[in-house]
Each structure stands twice: as C-alpha cells, then as structure tokens.
Amino acid sequence: MSFDANAHREASLQGWEEAAPGWVRRQEMLRVFGAPVSAWLIDAIAVQPGQRVLELAAGLGETGMLAAELLTAGGVAIISDQAEGMLAGGRDRAGQRRVRGAERGMDRSAGRERGCRGLPQDRP
Q1: pTM higher than 0.90, yes or no?
Q2: CB atoms < 10 A from the CB of 80, how many?
C-alpha cells in the first residue's frame, strides 16, 4: 500500500475548509481557550520590534496577531494557513483588532506558500 501525498493534502485542505465556519463562529471561545499557550509561545520566542515572525498552520491567526502587536514599523508578522476559510476569518479578526496592513499580502497565489498573509505593523 502506498501513500498518496497529494490526495492526503487535498483531503486535509477540504477538512479544514469545512471546519473553518465553525472556528469562525466559536472564535472568541477558541481565543480564550488558547490564550495561555499563545502567550507562552510569544514569550518563548521573545519577539522584538523590527523582527519578522512566521506563524504556520495558523488557523485564525491569534498567536501571530499577538506577535504583531509587539512589532513596530519595520517588523512583520506573516500568518499562514492553507484554508481560505481560515484566512478569511483571520482577515476579519485583524480588522476588528485594527491591525493595519492586514490586507496586504493576503494572496493565495504565492506558489507553495499558498494562503500566506503578511501583517506589516504600520499602525500608529
């Protein structure tokens, strides 16, 4: 029996696309539930102004947005997920949190880095 990586990738993507609306509906509960882990991760990497931070398989991007708050002009948080539904929920949340520049780089056409979105920190 062989493993079909492409079929697995497509099934995974389909599963996350189907799950995304539920994650968006329960976003606040998930944020509160995950907050201790997100805070620990941010502390562990010791985010500094001007750095680049990459969050992979980010879901709605809460941890990456926490990192983004610690960056100043010149710093960038790149928040990535394969599912467009998760990206859309993250875009909405970034708008609610007033993370300026959240729309730049939210493009699924970036080859293998499909769905990456950059959150340059140029907010006042």
Answers
A1: no
A2: 21
Would the pLDDT of 120 be above 60?
Answer: no
Q: Residue 80 has which token pair? A: 């990535």
Q: 3-state SS string over the chain? A: CCCCHHHHHHHHHHHHHHHHHHHHHCHHHHHHHHHHHHHHHHHHHCCCCCCEEEECCCCCCHHHHHHHHHCCCCCEEEEECCCHHHHHHHHHHHHHCCCCCCCCCCCCCCHHHCCEEEEECCCC
Taking only the tens place, the pLDDT of each residue in 64-76 is 888 888 887 778 8
Domains present along the chain, CATH in parentheses: 5-120 (3.40.50)
Residue 110 structure tokens: 């970036």
